[in-house]
Design brief:
The protein is α+β, with helices and mostly antiparallel strands and about 425 residues long. It is built from 9 helices and 19 strands.
Length: about 425
């Protein structure tokens, strides 16, 4: 890559229409119906599953957005793209597409799913909702599954369609308190993690789910064409603002989802990685029968190569920036700074299985120098998911800094050698 490109970032920004002959773009970039709420905050967007997803807003710093999610409440309009699979053979198609058994997903429940190619490489993932006996929504992450559904639906009595549903997330320890203030009547009962229900807000029936992408307490709302979306969105923002809620972009969840070990499609897994390699083996049900990629996955290496990393005093550069004793050992797939652990955090994919949690590596950081990092298991804390389930209600009031890597004589000598090498460059 040319050096000049390394110093740039590329974003989609909203621009006014000039004259009465607007520019026709080669590919549509669909806009969330509530995007107007973000316009006062100099928004920048990326293209995600054919929709625009907010990457940057000027109303708060990334650290402020992080703490809002940990301590209060955030509101985020996502690029998630639900597609509908319906008809007598809907379940048969989904069983063919997904390695995880869909037959036990009942109406009113959600299920995490991902799809693979025939060679076991991953396409994308998302959240499956069974909205009726023969009708499902799959709210997918970035990637193209619509064509994949169509390609594998031949001979089946099934319809694949875009229901024009848009998803927004309300996340944080006060999120359910806000929901209770918004809905007409009492709170859903039961209302478990990965449940979905239809409730009434200001007289409008909406579907909500106990899910999100932060691993904090939260819920998502699915805006359908028949909903008064602007009324609902403005009401959520107005009532939430009274409780400290702010609109957020990607920084509002990036660090938290890394700490929680929530993988990002196209980054932490790709068409070249199998579910085993990225730690998703528990979501494969070989016993359910045939599915796309089953033969390849049966023969695949079952070892995990993806782990978390904590970095001393720096933020890792994404890419092939991991090394051990001067030799490349892997790739940083996600990276940011944690204001809670007060260190760099990331997700890495190793070249082999020789290294694992507890291993100390060197990683290129955004300051242009090598820093030490320690591989760790994911999630980095709350391994039993007590926060997202509302069991652990303790709200962090201040950072809990990572203790760092124990300093040994060898490590000290290696650090001094590395610093001397960098000074000589």
């Amino acid at each position: 890559m040319h050096d000049s490109l390394k110093k740039l970032r590329f974003s989609v920004v909203p621009l006014p229409v000039e004259g009465n002959r607007p520019v026709e773009l080669a590919r549509t970039m669909a806009v969330h119906p509530l995007t107007y709420q973000e316009l006062p905050y100099d928004p920048e967007y990326s293209l995600y599953a054919g929709r625009l997803s907010p990457e940057k807003l000027s109303n708060a710093t990334p650290d402020e957005m992080y703490w809002k999610a940990r301590q209060e409440i955030i509101f985020r309009h996502t690029g998630e793209h639900p597609f509908e699979i319906s008809g007598p053979d809907a379940l048969k198609l989904l069983q063919r597409i997904f390695p995880r058994d869909v037959s036990n997903v009942k109406k009113g429940r959600c299920s995490y799913q991902f799809a693979c190619y025939h060679d076991g490489g991953m396409i994308t993932d998302g959240l499956l909702l069974r909205v009726d006996d023969d009708r499902y929504w799959f709210a997918q992450a970035d990637g193209d599954l619509f064509s994949w559904y169509k390609a594998h639906a031949e001979g089946l009595d099934v319809t694949i369609s875009d229901p024009d549903v848009w998803v927004s997330q309300i996340q944080g320890p006060r999120s359910l308190e806000l929901l209770e203030n918004l809905i007409d009547g009492s709170m859903p009962d039961p209302w478990r993690y990965f449940d979905w229900v239809e409730v009434t807000i200001a007289g409008d029936q909406v579907i909500i789910s106990r899910t999100g992408f932060t691993n904090e307490l939260g819920w998502e709302i699915y805006f359908r064409p028949q909903n008064d979306i602007e009324m609902l969105g403005d009401l959520i923002l107005e009532e939430g603002s009274k409780m400290g809620m702010i609109l957020t972009a990607t920084p509002g969840f990036r660090c938290r989802r890394i700490e929680a070990g929530l993988l990002s499609a196209g980054q932490d897994f790709t068409q070249t990685t199998t579910p085993f390699a990225v730690g998703l083996a528990r979501f494969i049900d070989f016993e359910k029968g045939d599915f796309v990629g089953r033969t390849a996955l049966m023969a695949a290496d079952k070892e995990c190569r993806s782990w978390g990393i904590r970095v001393e005093g720096g933020t890792a550069v994404r890419g092939d920036t991991l090394e051990k004793s001067g030799q490349p050992v892997g790739r940083v797939t996600s990276s940011t700074w944690s204001p809670y652990q007060v260190c760099g955090v990331g997700i890495v994919h190793l070249n082999n299985t020789n290294l694992g949690p507890g291993a100390v590596v060197d990683v290129q950081c955004t300051d242009g120098t090598l820093h030490r990092g320690e591989l760790c298991t994911l999630p980095m804390y709350d391994p039993k998911g007590k926060i997202v389930r509302g069991i652990n209600k303790v709200i962090p009031t201040e950072p809990e800094p990572w203790v760092g890597i124990p300093v040994t004589a060898d490590a000290q000598a290696n650090t001094e050698k590395r610093l001397n090498q960098q000074k000589s460059l």
